[in-house]
Amino acid sequence: MNDPAEFVRTAIDRLRAEVPGSAIVAASGGIDSTTAAVLAERALGDRAHAVFVDTGLLRAGEVEKVGAFFRASGLRFAVASASDRFLGALQGVRDPEEKRRRIGAAFIRLFEEEATRVGTDRLVQGTIAPDWIESGGALRDTIKTHHNVGGVPSDSRLVLVEPLRDLYKDEVRAVARHLGVPEPDRQPFPGPGLAVRVNGEVTAERVRRARVANAIVEAEVERAVAAGEIPRPWQYFAVLLDSPTVGVLGDNRVHGDAVSVRVVESIDAMTATAMALPRPVLQRIAERITRELSAQVVRVLYDVTDKPPGTIEWE
Q: Phi, psi at residue 35, to the nearest 5°?
């Protein structure tokens, strides 16, 4: 893509051609889905019905932040509360690929219900090139199944409309800037949410611990950026590991969780480099996580793996 303005004109024409009536718009609050939602609203007006799903797998304050972000983007939207549905779908599941498939199916079933309510079979979503490339198919190996690609059930009655399908993240951000979407360079957050930042089984309590750890990492990294200690990274988060470990609390031996911190630099998410954080920043993160999750998390690790061979997210 060379010209965001030309892309927007073409995308709006295509949306109008592909959506003869109304459409449900999957709006997660990420830059991809928000850009797709703004395009859909400009193309379809009040025939575009943006839906933000509270899966129970979101970061601290995410519902309020996304609502404010959508309003600043001029986007009309509805909130669907579905934490019980998503946590129920993940009960007992440990395999990362199965998690993504189940989350994708839960989204689609919910959007099918919303589509029935408004009388449409069209679903606009913010799929971008890395999503379908990494999900495999044809001659491509599966790196990981993206919930909005490989997680779509084969019997879904929805017709997918994907205006950003051929763009990479840096190109989406250029389009978002052209559209006036606020904060186009903010860090990505995975569609499956904290489910892929909880290794092993996903429970409400394990999600809570991951949520606290993620909030601490975000706050301390942003504090370091504001203080000029580090440049702004591409992505920064915490992963709750499925590896109980021994720690010490006072004079007592405790058995708790371990957390891995991940901070990377990237341009398009296809490759990434682990950032070398200064020791004081790492120490603040570790101290806060073990203090605020005392006796629950007793060890904090730092992931220095690039992509490849690792992926950005752990699952």
A: -65, -45
Output the pTM of the full model: 0.87
**Beta strand 252-265 with 245-249: parallel, antiparallel or unpaired?**
antiparallel
Write phi, then psi, for 170 (nearest 5 degrees): -65, -30
- What gap in Å lies between CA 182 and CA 128, rounded to an integer? 19
For residue range 36-68, list pLDDT tens digits in order: 999 999 999 999 999 999 999 999 999 999 998
- Looking only at the bridges linking them, the beta strands covering 273-274 and 245-249 are unpaired
208 burial via Cβ count (<10 Å: 0-12, 13-18, 19+): middle
What domains can you pick out in the chain, each with its CATH number?
4-179 (3.40.50.620), 198-302 (3.30.300.10)
Please enumerate in sequence order all residues whose Cβ is within 8 A of that of 12, keeping only pairs 6 or more positions apart, or say none.
Answer: 39, 42, 43
**H/E run at residue 78:** strand 77-81
